[in-house]
Every structure is written in structure tokens, then in C-alpha cells.
Amino acid sequence: MSVSSLAAASGEREAPFYRSVGNECGLFEQAFRQRLPLLLKGPTGCGKTRFVHHMAARLGKPLYTVACHDDLTAADLTGRYLLQGGETRWVDGPLTRAVREGGICYLDEVVEARKDVSVVLHPLTDDRRLLPLERTGELLEAPDDFMLVVSYNPGYQHILKSLKPSTRQRFVAMAFDFPPPGVERDIIARESGLAAERCAALVNLAASLRAMKGQDLEEGVSTRLLVYCATLIQGGMPILEAARATLVEPLSDDVDVQDGLLEAIRATFG
Amino acid sequence: MSVSSLAAASGEREAPFYRSVGNECGLFEQAFRQRLPLLLKGPTGCGKTRFVHHMAARLGKPLYTVACHDDLTAADLTGRYLLQGGETRWVDGPLTRAVREGGICYLDEVVEARKDVSVVLHPLTDDRRLLPLERTGELLEAPDDFMLVVSYNPGYQHILKSLKPSTRQRFVAMAFDFPPPGVERDIIARESGLAAERCAALVNLAASLRAMKGQDLEEGVSTRLLVYCATLIQGGMPILEAARATLVEPLSDDVDVQDGLLEAIRATFG
Amino acid sequence: MSVSSLAAASGEREAPFYRSVGNECGLFEQAFRQRLPLLLKGPTGCGKTRFVHHMAARLGKPLYTVACHDDLTAADLTGRYLLQGGETRWVDGPLTRAVREGGICYLDEVVEARKDVSVVLHPLTDDRRLLPLERTGELLEAPDDFMLVVSYNPGYQHILKSLKPSTRQRFVAMAFDFPPPGVERDIIARESGLAAERCAALVNLAASLRAMKGQDLEEGVSTRLLVYCATLIQGGMPILEAARATLVEPLSDDVDVQDGLLEAIRATFG
Amino acid sequence: MSVSSLAAASGEREAPFYRSVGNECGLFEQAFRQRLPLLLKGPTGCGKTRFVHHMAARLGKPLYTVACHDDLTAADLTGRYLLQGGETRWVDGPLTRAVREGGICYLDEVVEARKDVSVVLHPLTDDRRLLPLERTGELLEAPDDFMLVVSYNPGYQHILKSLKPSTRQRFVAMAFDFPPPGVERDIIARESGLAAERCAALVNLAASLRAMKGQDLEEGVSTRLLVYCATLIQGGMPILEAARATLVEPLSDDVDVQDGLLEAIRATFG
Amino acid sequence: MSVSSLAAASGEREAPFYRSVGNECGLFEQAFRQRLPLLLKGPTGCGKTRFVHHMAARLGKPLYTVACHDDLTAADLTGRYLLQGGETRWVDGPLTRAVREGGICYLDEVVEARKDVSVVLHPLTDDRRLLPLERTGELLEAPDDFMLVVSYNPGYQHILKSLKPSTRQRFVAMAFDFPPPGVERDIIARESGLAAERCAALVNLAASLRAMKGQDLEEGVSTRLLVYCATLIQGGMPILEAARATLVEPLSDDVDVQDGLLEAIRATFG
Amino acid sequence: MSVSSLAAASGEREAPFYRSVGNECGLFEQAFRQRLPLLLKGPTGCGKTRFVHHMAARLGKPLYTVACHDDLTAADLTGRYLLQGGETRWVDGPLTRAVREGGICYLDEVVEARKDVSVVLHPLTDDRRLLPLERTGELLEAPDDFMLVVSYNPGYQHILKSLKPSTRQRFVAMAFDFPPPGVERDIIARESGLAAERCAALVNLAASLRAMKGQDLEEGVSTRLLVYCATLIQGGMPILEAARATLVEPLSDDVDVQDGLLEAIRATFG
Fold first, then answer.
1. Which ipTM did the prediction report?
2. What Pfam family is a match for this entry (chains A, B, C, D, E, F) (predicted)?
3. Is the torsion defined by CA of C48, C51, C55, C61 positive or negative?
4. pTM of the predicted model, to two decimals?
């Protein structure tokens, strides 16, 4: 399977279900058409990644997703010379691939990456839309259907890990949050197969659990965990047991915090 | 012996003895069937690793165990190009192996690993269940019988070493603790060959020693050390001598703490 | 596409629009003719990069731009031996290219680079104008039409990242700031296609937003973001929505700061 | 001389003299027979290394000793691919050698090693006794006559360098201290050739010097240094001169501490 | 162009203009003849580098200049094996070159270099004057016409970056400062072509600006910047504009400090 | 010139002049004969290195000197595989050379080296006197005429750079200081050719300058600098000028400290 088939496989997959909340799809499309880079901000598990998958499928463009991390360097994005059969061969990274052939490159949690990624993001995010590959001597001009999307979670930025203003100010930006109750209920029901009214109860519960964020919890419960919970219930597990495994243990190791979460759960389902 | 035989050898080994305490086997099986990743939390030596071995044997799946550490990188999990005979050859890592052929991949003490492991964990732990191998250009889709299990010990997390919420919230989670007295007695007796009533005395002793945790001891005495102690006693060593070598010296270097432990031991056996 | 075509492509591009504010073009030309290196200081997105592009086109010289970052080393600028076909081949970096063939080398945000870049900057910025390439054994003398330009943003220097006096004092320097209102209005209108009077309102707004810098904002809103905003409005997006996506979300994650920004926006357009 | 001859040479050397103090030989033998890993704790130069050499010779097993240090990694213990004649060849490390062929592997001052050694210690120290070699794809099962012994000095542990409870609790442990006076006298006499009654005086002196530990000295004087002192005296050097060179200068650079030591020496020999 | 031609080219260049201030030339010559290493201390841009160039030309010796930096290692000075055509070939570094063929090796800002340079400096700076090349197995004895010169700026030493006494005390040392007014005037006039009396005014200005050092400025204005200023004035630029670009902006980003500098400039030229 | 000729060249050089102060030669010879490792402690430039050179020549043994530094690793001492002509070839380091062929290995400022040198020092400094070469699979036994000598300067140890007690206690140790006046005078006269009575005045001066150590100076003036001073005077330089270049500038950059030094110099010679 070649590198190009990697993106294709990704592009060919059926557009994942996504329930729009505001005008996020419109802003994404405008940014795509105006060739502006996009920054998504929002908490863990609120649907940013799925939104990008949805939009890529809707626009019919291949999607290259990169989960950024502490050791991700510019070369991981642009490509490298690999030694094969005694000969060095250049292998495009996901960003180069997207620039060369068109498509959306999505850098998830971009603040985690090493600082040298700015060397490739800056010329791609000004009016030149260029990707210089020093190693191969190429200067790629991004086609009209190339789009750069990055995301990060403002909830746990710290001093050493934040986007420099000189980078931030190159993006159109959009804030995400958990979907409103009705939408979240439908998402859970669709993903887990659990009846909508039982999902609605989980969404109510999520509201109380999310209210504990900040004081006791680093992050509120994500839509993903609600889907997990509904899946286990639908699979036949008792509600309290499923809730403990998906809405309590993954959120905290602190016994007092867990007791608070369990109390809220029992108040809803007990 | 090839890489594939490594997992096979592991898979073929007889299912290790495991005494269930609650519904942990049921939750593991549900997670396996629903294709949800699982997080095990609990203290040192309480049986997490053995539980995973037991479940892998019970489900008839090969098991790939990785003891994570400070320098473990994503490439240690996914694979590397090795130079052999002037030709580079790709060698799958244990995670890739498990995704390619099905099976359970168990990352023990996952918080110890380098941050770039998130790059492989995230796409494997959302609904796509994908493992992108940038180096080979492959995008592997996990088969239904692939399962990812990770563990960590909440007892000694510190700031620099904790699971990010964006990672934690991708797992169904389960807390482990030392087994209840009757179960622990049976485990010790079975492993050491020592008579059950003498093992019961060791379990009683463990309760007093574990009560010292937090104030004086970083960790309570593990079931493993109780098995060691019973083994030495069964081998003919005087009880106090065996207890010093297995329940005192391995737990602390502090003379006062050691005196406290010895006092508890003498109170039980003296 | 070879390395030389990289610069050429850059040099052949039509001179980008640039509205002069003071005598910056005159000073640049004098420095070029007197063979003096130039340092540009100024905030994010005020037009430093575009100014250099403009001057390179005006002087008809190829331009080599390097976005500096934490891991950029002297070798990234001068070149490297690459292994190809079992033979090592020297490949010039962008600085060497500019010295060898003439042209302007622009190091954007030079303080971000590793300290060893001083090894190449120092002999190039005294009267010798030499570039020693230890690896190839060459000692290149810069031709008359070589010019070194570096930039940085005095707004977010910290102790570990500042230009040593022994480096700074080798440059003729020039401070940049956002363009005066009339000029900025014209720039926005030209780039976005939005009517000049609507752009004037955006420039007025920018003044109030920039006044918040320091107390609440790390950086004032850039001309680039104003162009983004005008582009989205011109594309049909409601003004408040466009302003939120370009003048609020990219500037801050703090709800209070965002409220302050939104208030100023509504006071102008509401 | 091949790698295998390295251990052999070590195994064939005559059993070094060792005077047992308590039941340390019995505990070592039990641990060896029960296939339990062993942890030795004790101050510098009290005889831990010699004890392990003695036991290896007594049990007739080859011994692989590794002095651990800050940069020792798992690969230093397990082995590496080396490039030879254009072909990579796997070379076993000392731990792999001991597992493959049987024998005792002794990791001296194990807390100094890099954290990734836990990846090889953990599966070797639970009931599976396995050594996975990811690089070669092998999963070695330790034979009955393999034993792992590690040591460390509790006297100078600090926060960054301590054994994690999850590692410590995998070992049977034993504390070492300087030998009792009669034994130490015999050791010194045997090693240096000095008459026993003169050695007895040195042992008396050691008691006073060791009493200064903690307040003035980081470590008490070791048996090794007493042997050095006796050796120089036996070689004809005046007592005070020999004592200064072996019992004062090696222990401290502080003039006041040295004066204290010299006073104690003169009180004994003056 | 080969490595040897690098030094030659440097040696053949015409002796740069240098106006002696005290007996610095005599001390340099004595040190050269007595085969003693020399340490030059002084502020940025006061002429240390030019002095060394001047003396090298005067003594008719090739000069090897190395601008030291944070990542400069001993191997950068001594040489390396490079892989070429499948064969490793040793390539002398600049220090080895100077020792092998005679000449002056000048390490500019030596305190910036990595600590392992001491391994080559120490044996070269005691009476043996040896350069051991461990990698090639050579032990080079420096010829009579080899001289080592190092420099640093005492003005911005900090704790982590200072010369160890064991290194400092191996050098004859000399302090440099800006030249006295008449000399500096002549230097500026000669370099810029500006009339001497106009240069004298610049030197007077420099005195007031240098008086601000310490309180407001990290470094006083260098002779180099005065030459830049005179060059721009000579090229037709208005005095105040030239002074801002060369004597204000390169020295400080602080508005208050800049105002102070401008006031002094206007007081002289306004 | 091969590696072996490196040591030979060193061994063949005529024994350098050394004036014994106490019984240091006797202690060195005893340690050599008893096969005990030796630790030399003392300030910069007091003659430790020359003493070792002298003793090596006197004993007729080759000497391998290594100036230790922050990046010196065990492999720098033991050796490495180098790639040559497509084949890896083992090249002995200086320590291995000394062990293999007999001779003295001198590690100057050993505390500067990386921590992994302990892996080679420990087995060489206990009664086994072994050097294990893991990479070649050799276990070298040191011959009777091998001796390990290390040195360090207790004057500037800090917490991160000190010898662990487990390493220190493996050495016979000796403290060095500047030679007594008569001896130092003779050394200076012999090295510089200056008349003895003029050297005596320099030694007197050194006493006053050394008295300033601690309060104002990090290190007292070394014998080496006194030799430099006498050399310049003998070469015809005025005393005050020579003293400034050798006894003032190399010792301090602080103007007040320099004034204090100059005052002492003028009081002696003025």
C-alpha cells in the first residue's frame, strides 16, 4: 500500500455522521474557498476531529490527519530521505502530500509539536501559500484545494506549550464546545444504538458532571465517553456499572472526586 | 525464532491461574466485543498483568505485552526499518503485529512512555480504529479481534507523568486493588505450595502492613511478595528470616519504618 | 526542480504590492548598495516579510527566506552532505546559495534559531563578508549583490532568546510598526476586494483593539487578520461573525478578553 | 576472545575469599534454587560485589557483572546489532548471555541505570521469567540456573535516583553492612599480608572513623581502604603516612574533617 | 577549493588596516616568539578580530578563525572522519590544520564553545604544545610558528559560561577597549570615506552613548557601528536618519533608552 | 603514525624536570608496585600533570594522558568501532591501550567526565583489575605494570560534579599544593632562564597574590603563570607590563580585583 493510497483510503471512507450546531460548516467552507487556514479550539472529545472528517468527506477532498506530540518535528510533516537498497529515496510526509496533490491536512493538538513546525506553517499560511522543501530543493505552491486545519485545547495550555502570536494570527479561528443537549442525545443514540430517551438521561447526567469541571475535574466528560457508556448499557451491562467504567474511572483517580461523580450518577439513575 | 512466533509462544502458554474478584472478567469481555480500549488502574503487584494474561488465554488471543519506560517511543510500538544485508527491511513492532494479525496489545505503565505514543494511540482509540504507519505508507484498520489494554498506577503519578485527559477519555476504565483475604490466601497457597492456614496468617499480616501505606510506605506489600515469603518458608527458611527478606527489606530502607514492619511481623508470628 | 530553481521561482514571482510608510525603501537600498546587513524589528503581521519580498523584486534579486525556529542550526543555512547512491554529495543551504550566486537571504525571527548560526553570521557581517564552509573547505567571499536581512519581534523576547550585542551590533537596524490608517485601509481593500470605506471602519476598529495590547493581549491585531476579516465579509459572511473568527478567536482564549474585544467590535459595527 | 569466553574466564577464576557474617549465603542459595531475583543493599566497599563473586564460584555458575551508570540502557544489557562487513550481526549483551546459557547476572548500583532497563527486568522478575528481545523477535525463557542479582547503596539515594516500588517489590532483599571486627581483621590480614594484631588496630580505628559518618562524612571508611592502608604499611610506609593516603585524603577534601580524621588516627597510632 | 587553500586565501589577503593603541602589537609578537598562548578580552566590536587579522598578516602566517558557539565541539576544531565513496576519510579541522602546517588559530568568543574543547586546548597550552588526535592515533607537536589565540567579552559572562581557572591560567592575557578618540576618528574616516572632522563629531557622540552603558545599555556603541553610520552619511543619508539606523535601533528595543540615545544624538548634531 | 606510536612518542620524551617537595615520589612508586590506583588532588597549575609525566619517565612506562571534560564517555577511554572501507574496525582508546600493553593512564580532572566512566574504573580499581570490553567481548586483565592515576581540583567542585564515595574510596589519594618558595624559585628559573634572585621576587609576589584567593580570586596564581611572567621579562618586557599580562589579566576581569593585584605588584617591583 503506497503513501498515496493512505490518503485515498482515508478520503474514500464514507462521510462520518456529524450534527451541525451553529454555522461551523459554513465558516469551514468559506475558509476553504478563500484559501485561508483554520484553527479549531475546544475541549477533549467534543467532536473537532469528527467535524474535520465530515467536512473533508463533504468537500470530497482527501484528509491527512496528524496527532501532534512532543517529538513531532517539521520533517515528520514534510518528509525524509530514507535509505533503501543502498540508495536514498525521498518520501513525502503527510503535509507535503496534501500540498502536492490537494486535500486537507489536519494537525490535531498542534501546540504539542516541536517548534520547528513553524518553519513549514508560516510560508503556507501567508498569501504565498508556499511549502519550501529545503532537502529536495523544491518550492511547492499549494493548489487551490489545499487547506490547512489545526486544533488545540485551550483548557490545558501552559506557558511552555502555547501557540506564538506570530503563528496564531495566521489563522481564521473557531471555538468548539460540547453539542447542545438535543444534538448530543441524537449523536449518542446513533452511535450506540441505545434508545433516544435513555440517551437523553445520559446527556442530563453529563450536564451535572461537566459542572464539576475546574473545581474537581481537569476536563468535563466527553461525548465519546457518553457513547461508550450507552454502548455498554446497550450491550446489557447494568447502568451503574457501565457509568463507573466510562464516566467515573476515566475521569479521575481521586476517591473524593469519584464519590461526587457517583453521587450525581445515582441521583440520575439510582 | 521469528517475531510472529514471539506472540504465538505467548499465546500458546497455558492460561495462568486467576481468581476473579468482581465482574472484571465480564467488563473485559464486553470491552473486547464492543471493540473499546481498556484502562486498568491499580497498585504494584496486585495482579493487573496476570489478569490480562488470563483474559488473553481465555479469549484465545495472542498477547503482546510492553513494559513502558521513559524512553519508549511510538516507533518501539509500531516498528522500524532495520538495515540487513545492505537492504533496509521493515520490522513490525508489537502494536503493529497485534493490529495486523489480531490480538491484545497490553502497554504496562503507559504513563512512563514518551509522549509520541499518543500519535498511535489516538487513531486506534476512536471509532476509526486505525493505525497509520507513516514510514511504510500503510493505514491499517484494526480487525474486530484487536484490543488495546493499558495500565498505570495512580499511586505514584506526578505532574510530569500523567495521562492527558484527551488520552484518558478514550478508554473504558477499571480500578484494581489487592484481592480480598480469602482469594489472596488461595493465590498464595497455590503459587507457593505452603499450607492454606499458614498463608492466611500471611494475608492477615499483609493487612497490617498495608495499613502503614501513605504515612511510612510508598506502596503496600504486594501479593507477589507474599508469594515470595511463602515460597521461602515452604523451602525451609525460618518465618522471621523469610519475612525480613521479602516483606521488610524490599519495602523500605528506613530503619524506623523497618522496625515498624518487623514489630507487626513479630506480633503475628513471634 | 533543483535548488537553484527554488530561488529563481521565488525571484520570478511578481513584486508583491507594498505601500511604503516612511523611508524604509531608501534605507534598504542604501544598505544593499553599501553591502551592510540589515535588521528589521517589529510586531507580528505588520508587513516585514512582505517588505523584504517587495524589495527583492524591486532590486531584481533572488530571495531566500528562512523561517527560523528552535532547532534551526548553522548547517540548515550553509548545507550538508547527503548520502546518495553510496556517494556523499554536498547540497548548499539557502544562505550558501545566496552567497554563491548573489541575492538576498532573509532569516525571519532570527532569535529563534540555535546559537551556532552566529558562526556563519559573524564573518558575513564584518568587513570581510566571508562564508567559511568548514565541511567543504571553501571560503566563499560574498559578491556585491549579496545581502543579509534578519528580523525579530521585540515584543516577545525573553532572557533565553535574545540577540547577543556582539551579533546585534553588526547590523543596520530599522523598526517596523503597523501602517498608518490610510495606508492600512488601502492595503486591506486591495487584498480583500472589499470597498475602501468598509475597510476604513475595520482600521478604526483595529486601533481600539490594539489599544488593549499589553494589559489583556500579548499582541495587537495584525494587518493580516484585518485582511482575513475583510475577505470573509466580501465573501458574504455577516460582519460580526467574520470579526469573531478573525479578530477575536485568533487573539485570545480568555472569555473576559474576548468579551472586551466583542464589545469594541459591536461598538463599531453593531 | 569471544563473548562467551568473557563469562567463562570470569566463571573459571578461583572462588574469591569471602567470610560469611550471617546467613547471607543461605539466603542467596535459597533464592537461586527458588528462581527468585535478589536485591543487595549496603554501603560502599562493604563486600557486596565480592560476595556475589564468591557465590557464583561456589554455585559453579558463570557471572556477568555490570557496573550501572547514568547512561546504561536496556540495549547495553540485552544486545545490539553491529555492522560488520556490510552485514548487521546481533551481539548478545551480558544479560541475554546469562539468560541464554544460564548463570548469574549482577547489576551493580542498579538505580544509576536509565529507566528503560525496567523493560527487561520486569518480565524476568515475575513468574514468567521471560526476556523479550524485540529487535531479534526472540522471547527467551530463563533456564532454572539463571539468577538476577542487583545492588544499590541506600546511603546516597536521592529523589531522581531511586528504585520504583513496582521494581523493588519484585526482589527478595538483603541488607549488607561492614563486617564485624574479628571478621574484618581477618579479611585485612589475608589481603594485605600484615600481621593480624596490627590489622586489629586498623579495625578499631575504622570504628571511630565510621562514627563520624553523617555529620562530617558522606560515607564511612570501607574495608577496601583498610586493606589499602595495611598494604602500604606492610610495604614499609610509616603508619601515619599510609593512613593519610588511604583513610583521610580519599574520604574528604575538607580541612576540618581531615583534621578530625587525623586526630582519631593519631589517638590510635600516635 | 581545498581546505588548505582556505587558510591560504585568508593568509594572502592584504593586511587589514589596524591602528595600534598601546603595546598590543609588541605583546602579541613576544607571545608568538615565546610560543605562549594569548587571551584577548574586550567588548563587542572594539577591534579584537581585526587586530588578530592584522598581526597574522604582519607575521606572514596563515590565520584560522573560528567563531565559537554553544554547539562547537572539540571535533569541530580537530577534524572528523567523513564518508566519501564508501570510504571514510579524515578531514582536518582548523586547529589541526594550524598545528600541522604552522599558523595562528583564533577562537573568537571561546567561552561559548562546548566544554570538551578543553581536551585539545590543555595539552596545546602547556610546555608540551601537543595536539593528540585520538581518532587518527596521531600526537602532533606544534611547530614554533603555531600560536593559539582566544578571545572573550568579559562584559556578558554569566555563571554557566565562563572560562575555568584551569584554562584561563594557561594564557598570557590582554585587555582591549575602544580606541582613543583620535585613533577612532581616523579609523572611521578611513573605512567610510567621510571627512575626518565629521568623524570626530561621531566619536564625541560615541563617548556620550558609551557613558550610558551598564545603566541602560548592555553594551556601548561599537567602532563598527560608527563606521556604518559614517558610511550611510557619506552615501547621502541625513545624519539623524543614519544615526537612528546605526546607533539607536541596533542598541536597544526599549523606547525610553532609545529616547535617551536620540537626545544625545540631537544634542550633538541637531 | 599509529595509535601505539602515540604512547611511545610520549614515553620516549625525556623525563621532564620535577622538583620533589615531600614524599610524593615514594608514595607514587609504592602505589605503582602494589598495583593500587592513585588520586591526585590540588589547585590549577601546581604541577600535578608534570609530576605524572615525571614519574612515568622515571618508571620507564608509557603515559596516556586524557584531559576529561563534560562529554567524555567510557567509549572515549576504551575504544570504538570505526567504519573503514566498508568494514568496521575496533580502535583501542587510551585506557585500553594502557591496560593491553602496560603503562600509566592519567585522567586529568576526572570529575568532569560523564558518569559512565565509572563502568570502566570500578572493575579496574578493585582487586580483580579487569577491563571488560563489552563491544569486543574481551575481558582484559591489567598487567602488573599498569597503573591508573586520576586527578581533580577540590577547589571548584560543586554538587553536580563530585566523585561518588563509591568511586573515591577505590583510590590511594595525595594532596598537592604550590611548591615551597625555594623550590618554586628554582622551577621558574629553570623554565624561563631568568636569574634566580629575580625569580625569588616573583615567588614573594605570588605569596601575596595567593593570599587574595577565596575573597577576591577563584584560584591563586599558578606556577605556570609565574613561569610565563619570567619568560616575558627575560625576553625584555618591562616587569610591570609582563606582570599585568600574566598575573593580572588571566586571573580576573574585575577592575577592583585587578587594582588589588596591581597594587601588590607595584609594592614588590615598583
1. 0.81
2. AAA_5
3. positive
4. 0.71
